[in-house]
Amino acid sequence: MMRANADQYRLREAALGTWPDNPAVEADLDQRLLFLARRVGRAHDEDPRPADAIFDALQVELQNNPAAYDRSPLYAQDGVLLMGRACAVSDECRFGWGDARDAS
To answer: How far apart are CA 78 and CA 84, in angstroms?
Structure first.
């Protein structure tokens, strides 16, 4: 649901012409989310339920400090929308949720 909301927000902003034309802006956000997700993932390597712990930690960080990641702001510095974008980055297999097979 979070990813769908983030995608809907992005499409609405693009339709309104307010989404940046420069793909580097979105790439910067994705890279920041990726660095955060990998760091949080490493911190929960030994957790018996790593996906839950990673999700919770990501959500707390994005809610408490959205401006550090959404600098432009593409997603209105909204923690829920940023979490949806982080899920999209995960869906691209760029980070995992604690699975031992994750090579990120």
So the answer is: 10
Helices (H), the chain: 2-16, 23-43, 50-64, 79-91
CA pseudo-torsion sign 75, 79, 80, 82: positive
Domain contains 104: no
Q: pLDDT per residue over 54-99, tens digit each?
A: 999 999 999 999 999 999 999 999 999 999 999 999 988 888 888 6
Tell me the residue range of the domain where 44 lies.
Answer: 2-91
Instruction: Report the alpha-carbon distance of residue 57 to residue 86 in Å, rounded.
Output: 12
pTM of the model: 0.89
Residue 97 placed within a domain: no
Neighbours of 19 (CB within 10 A): 16
**Alpha carbon of 25 to those of 53, 56, 69, 100: distances in Å?**
29, 26, 11, 32
Instruction: Please give the structure tokens belonging to residue 26.
Output: 């979105």
